[in-house]
Amino acid sequence: MTATLTFPVTGARLAMLLVCSSLAGCGSLGSFGGDTFKPYVPEVVQGNFVSKEQRLALSPGMARAQVRDILGTPLVTSLFHADRWDYAFSIRRQGVPAQSFQLTVYFKGDVLTSIEGGELPSESEFIERLVVQRKAASVPSLQASEEDLNKFPVKKAPSDAGRAAALPATYPPLEPTPR
Fold it and tell me: Looking at the DSSP assignment, which residues form a beta bridge with residue 104?
């Protein structure tokens, strides 16, 4: 009878211990900072970047080949809209707001007729947008005054005669001699 009474008590104690340790573990999760476990987010770049300078180089009346030389291969071309090329670009980087740009060029036959699109950044503006702004760390002063330098004793370099006496006259061979 004693064995049956101690088993339920031991099971209850074990269950109580399990519940308490679970609650203690949940309570300690709040001690981690928000940046403790940050997942890696890869950089996602899609499309062709078209800059303001490239857009300004286009003019109505240009041939398709000239437009392709300036802007590159269009991201979207359609068999149903052969007279329209779409250039879309988007980039997502960690710590930088997502950016997206679009430009559409229309042709009539082989000649550029019109250009549509939003405001495009210049190449230098685009590069500035990609830079992650970080806080500048304070750098300690690396200048030492004469008083600071005098606090440390100057060690004299050993003379050549003392150094030569410490070195052996001959060294053992690196490889064993053949017998």
Answer: 86, 116
